[in-house]
Amino acid sequence: MTLSFTKWQGCGNDFVLVDARTTGLPNDAAALSERVCNRHYGVGADGLIFVLPSDKADFRMRIFNTDGSEAEMCGNGIRCFARLVYDAGMTEKDCFTVETGAGILKPRIIKEGNKVTGIEVDMGEPVLEAKQIPVEGFGERRVVAEDIEVLGKKYKATCVSMGNPHCVVFVGDVNDVEMDRVGPAFERHTWFPRRTNTEFVVIRDRTHLRMRVWERGAAVTLACGTGACASLVASVLNGRADRKAEVELDGGRLMIEWKEDNHIYMTGPAEKIFSGVFEEEEHC
Ligand code: ZDR
């Protein structure tokens, strides 16, 4: 089995991207993602992303986590996806539509002269009703600053879906959080029937947030685009930030704006690292 790919990163959140427009999604995409993403036995990445045709949009994106689970959306991934289809000439447009599990989203390539300097994505509208996120036990209500107990410690949780589920908690110092221990306990907490991504956020001031993430189906990663959007929304809902703020992640910075029309815009980098062919021998 051989698979041609390009490897990308956005704020250090790294992905293997595969052009599957003519072949379609491989039958074993979930298991393949586990093998490709493995940092010792595979290429190494936080997720495997496929470029597919769509009958509703210019392209369709599907993303698989390192554990093989499929995510509805990926914010850093869609910037990498957008730059790949643009750089590879799969579209001539610098603003196009991508069908995702979070609906049809719109990336826009930002250029200075001929140089791509970033990607802006209209990430659509955040979902705040518990049942839709999904969060158990709150019906159709919003979950804003609600008590949650995780490994014997109480946190105030604010939950948001950006297509994928997020639980945002505010902390005094992100470095004090034992991410590897606390993250998995949030991910599999009984509140979250489809598990959850969890963001630990420090408010620096009303336009600067610091965030670390435990990603559902992955682990601690250097950045999370949908998580940065969810963190800004949660900060606004708690009256702690303005509707436009910079989010500082372990691997870089993202600019997030929640506009008056309820759409969220995320702006940040996407860089190609290398291209290659994943070659797998039949196991003996
Ligand atoms: C966090 C993420 N990398 C992004 O940039 O938005 C999304 C990856 C998918 C995530 N692990 C999930 O929702 O399962």
What share of the residues lie within helices? 10-25%
Shape: globular
Low-confidence stretches: none
Largest sheet: 18 strands, mixed
How much is the average pLDDT? Answer: 97
Number of helices: 4
User: What structural category do the secondary elements indicate?
Assistant: alpha+beta
- Write down the secondary-structure element order: EEHEEEHEEEEEEHEEEHEEEE
Bound ligands, named by name, code or SMILES: (2R,6S)-2,6-diamino-2-methylheptanedioic acid
- Number of E-type strands: 18
How big is the Rg? Answer: 18 Å
How far the N terminus sits from the C terminus, by CA atoms, comes to 14 Å
Strand content: 35-45%
Description of the molecule:
This protein is an alpha+beta fold. Helix content is 15%, strand content 41%. It has an 18-stranded mixed β-sheet that branches. β10 and β11 form a beta hairpin. The longest helix is centred in the N-terminal third of the chain and has 13 residues. It starts with a strand and ends in a 5-residue tail after the last strand. The mean pLDDT is 97. It binds (2R,6S)-2,6-diamino-2-methylheptanedioic acid. (2R,6S)-2,6-diamino-2-methylheptanedioic acid binds next to α2 and α4.
Walk me through the topology.
Elements lengths: L1 E9 L2 E7 L9 H9 L9 E6 L6 E7 L4 E2 L3 H13 L10 E3 L2 E10 L2 E8 L23 E5 L2 E9 L3 E6 L8 H9 L9 E9 L2 E7 L5 E2 L3 H13 L6 E6 L2 E7 L5 E5 L2 E9 L5
Parallel strand pairs: 2-3, 4-6, 11-12, 13-15
Antiparallel strand pairs: 1-2, 1-18, 3-4, 4-5, 6-7, 7-8, 8-17, 9-10, 10-11, 12-13, 13-14, 15-16, 16-17
Bound molecules: (2R,6S)-2,6-diamino-2-methylheptanedioic acid (ZDR).
(2R,6S)-2,6-diamino-2-methylheptanedioic acid (ZDR) binds next to α2 and α4.
